[in-house]
Amino acid sequence: MKSPRVSFRCALMGAGAVLSMGGCRSLAPEAANGRVTPSPLGVFVRSWLLCGPIPCPAGDTVEAGRRAGHDRDWLADVGGEKGIRPVAGATLDCAGVPLVWKRYESAADRLDFLSALSGAEPLAEAVVYAWSLIDCETDCEAWLALGSDDTVKAFVNGECVHDRFVFRGVGTDQDIVPVRLREGRNTLLLKVVNGTGGWAAVCRVLTFEQLLSRLRQDALGAELVTTPVFVGEAFPTFSPDVPPWLGGVLGTPEIRARFYDADYNEVAKAARPGRYGAVVEVVPPAGTGPPRIETATLFRQRGEVRWRHVTWETFAAELPR
Hints:
Oligomer: single chain
Order of helices and strands: EEEEHHEEEEEHEEEEEEEHEEEHEEEE
Strand order of the largest sheet: 8-4-10-15-12-13
Helix content: 10-25%
């Protein structure tokens, strides 16, 4: 058994809409005293209209309640998730809970619902809607890049472009999906269900060139993969931890490694078992970024270990520094 390779390092809501059991009905809207600021392509969306929290329905299990909250269109009688075009101050009654679409300007790229909905209940096992606008200079294909804590649905111009029932911590660009934008303003609606703990979303829309730049940045900063515990005199090789197709699109960096023994003498081969070090220079393709230096500790075994046939025993040993 070989040693493992490891890494280092919509229409305006009107009054009078009636709701079926468990959905929403529109009440008299207040004066629209604020609108979202449209976001250009490539910029994280920070200007939102929020509606929530809406309690998840009771279910036979916690997951069943979350699933019901994720699947139900809570806006069905006021335009629906695909047709809603809210205004700040418009009020709703959702499953007996009075709510209002409120404008919220996020101070950071990440939209923190716990802060935005502070003072409201519940903040666990609940649903929130976040609506905004994306500006585009021409009809084009683009990429919606978003992250969420927890489950998420995304609608662009009334089309559900992303539906993911997942429980996770939020991260930038966790999901990237293709979307079709039109010239002018495009509507964006996120629906995020919180289980427990953190509750957030982060979102931007990227052109192909912006997506390529983002992938290039990831590739340039990718960790190096190697086999740190090896057998024989030949040192292991290093490679960036990116999919092969990405290297084909962006180009493969040049890897220059220098090796040192335990006494810090530069060596060309591992002449004897023991500890070695490597200083690795990663040189990106011309014009794509500056080189960087990585270091790694390596260890040459005395011989190949037949892991499947070893009788494991407890023993005391002193590890090298």
